[in-house]
Amino acid sequence: MKKPPKPGAIVKSPRDSFVISRKLVMPDQINSMGGLFGGNVMAWIDKVGAMVAQRHAALPVVTASIDQIAFLAPVRVSNHVILEGIVTYVGNSSMEISVGVWAENPFDGTKVQTTQAFLTFVALDPKGKPTRVPGLKIENKIQQKLFDEARKRVEMRSKNRQSFRSTVGKHPTLEEILAK
Q: Using an 8 Å Cβ cutoff, are 115 and 100 in contact?
């Protein structure tokens, strides 16, 4: 279970900051396979995630990572894309935001989940430095399950970040990789 917040600490529930956004898929957004460009979906996910994080923190935020993005099904021309973002975990200055994406056929109302992503945002103070964010008030079993799952991802990200940092600046250039 999540630790209770300190007395007097500011806390917000996921209900306080969720975001739902809708997009209409147009022909110029389609790739050669007839589906929506993944880059468009990723940009929409990042924007929805940022809005959720801004609402939770009540501060400017920056994207620290986008991971665990999974493309589950294609999105077609004239589909409505529904993006739903919610806070799943809060650290000191960082927040994990889950964004689910659904394609809706506007003619018959059928919906299918097409994408799921987890993003980390960091809140910034007026000097552009990371700053504390409100705690997360868990209100039900589903929110607790999401929080517990997010805590595991946070731990994995920390380990991956340490490994990644040990290789930064050591990766060979394309010229070196392709040399004979």
A: yes
Amino acid at 63: T
- The Cα–Cα gap between 95 and 33 comes to 35
CA dihedral 150, 152, 154, 158 (to 10 degrees): -170
Contacts of 116 (CB under 8 A, 6+ apart): 68, 69, 70, 72, 98, 99, 100, 101
Q: What is the pTM of this model?
A: 0.87
Helices (H) and strands (E) counted in the chain, each on its own, are: 3, 7
Predicted confidence (pLDDT) per residue in 114-143, tens digit: 999 999 999 999 999 999 999 999 999 999
CA 31/CA 52 separation, integer angstroms: 29
CA-to-CA separations, 32 to 41, 101, 155, in angstroms, rounded: 16, 21, 38
3-state SS string for 8-72: CCCEECHHHCCEEEEEECCHHHECCCCCECHHHHHHHHHHHHHHHHHHHHCCCEEEEEEEEEEEC
Q: In terms of residues, how long is the chain?
A: 180
Closest CA to 89 of 44, 52, 126, 60: 52
Alpha carbon separation from 90 to 31, 48, 136, 157 (Å, rounded): 36, 17, 6, 14
